[in-house]
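go over both lines:
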Amino acid sequence: MKDLISSHEASSLICLPSQSEPDICENADHEGMLIGLSERLNLPVMLHPQDLVNPHMLICGMTGGGKTFLARSIISRAHAQCGFNFIVIDFTGEYSGIAGAIGASSSQPQDAFGKEQCSVYIDLHSLSEPKKIDAASNAFDAAAGAMRSRRSSRQVFILIDEAWKLIEKNRGLETIIREGRKYSVGLITSSQLLHDTSQSILSNMATIFIFKTTNARSLDTFSKSFGLSDQELARVADLDRGSCIAIQLRRSGARSVFVIKNIIGIRDTEQISIMGRISMKISVTEFDALVADLCGEGKIAALREQAQASQIGLADLIRAMMENGADRRRVLPRLQRMGFSNAELADAFSAAMHMVESRASARDATNVAAARMGDVNGSK
C-alpha cells in the first residue's frame, strides 16, 4: 500500500472553484461606465463597449428585478461619463425622467448621429398600439440610414424596452443588430421571458444581464444559448433584487460570467447637497462624473456613499477627492465649471489642504510611535 503521494498527485485531488470575476478590460484607456460591484471580490464592474464583440446589450429577468433601473443607470452614466448619444424609443413613458435628465430632445433619430452630443427621446405612450409600432419602425429605419451615412465615430445607443418584439421583423432593426458594431451603434433592450427572444437577437448580444427568473423555458434558453452550468442556472433562480449575472463576450475571444451583487444605479431625481457659503445641489449623475474625472471610476461608490450619508461640505469634498488620487491642479477648474465662486473655492481649498496635512501628520506620528514601541519590545 502506498503511504505517500507526490505533490502533483495531491493537486489532482483538490477541487478549486473558479473565480467568477470580471476580466480586466483589454484597453484601460477606453471610456467605460460603472455598473456595480462584483460578488466575490467587491470589485467595480466597468462596462467598456469598445472591448466587446459588439456594443449590444440584453437585460432580462422577471418584473421587479431591476431591469429598468439598470437601463436608466446605463443611460445616465454613458451620457455623463462617456459623452455617448442615445435614441430612447419609449412605448410606456417610463423613460421620460431619464430623457429629461440627459437633455434628450424630441427631434429626429438621425440627429443623434452628428458630431455633437445630442440624444433623442421618442415618446410613444399616448399613441394607439398600431401607431406605436409604425412610429418605432420608422425610427429604426431612419436610424439605420443615418448610421450608414454618418461621419462621426461617437458611440450611439438605441434603447427600446420589451416592445422591440413588436417590430422584430423591421429591416432597420435588423441592420443595426448586424452592422452596428462597425458604426459604433449599439442596441439596448430587455425581455422578461428569454425563450420568446429570437435567435438573431440572442446570437448578436455581447453583453447579457440576467436578473432573477424561475421560468423553466427561459432557464433552458440560458443554458443552450450561453452555456450556463447547472450551478449558474440555480444562481439565476436565487438572485436577490438588484443583483444579476453578467455575461460578456470580448473581441479577444474571452467569455466572462460573473455575479454583480449590487447595481450602483442612479435615480432620475436623486441629488447630493454640497454645503458651503453658496450651497449647491447637483444630480448624482453630475457627482459621479466629477469623481470619475478627478479620481477614477473605481472611487465613485465610496465617495458617493460618503457624500450621501449627510450634506457634504465643499472643503470635505475637496479633501476626500485629493485623498483618493485627484490632482489638486485639476480640482479647482473642475469645480469652477460647476458654478462655485472663486472666493468660496479659495476658502474651501485652504481648509481641505489643512485637513489633508493634519491627517498626514497624525499618521506619521502614529507610525513613529508604533516603530518606537517595536524597538522597545525588540530590545526586551
Observations:
- The first helix runs from residue 7 to 12.
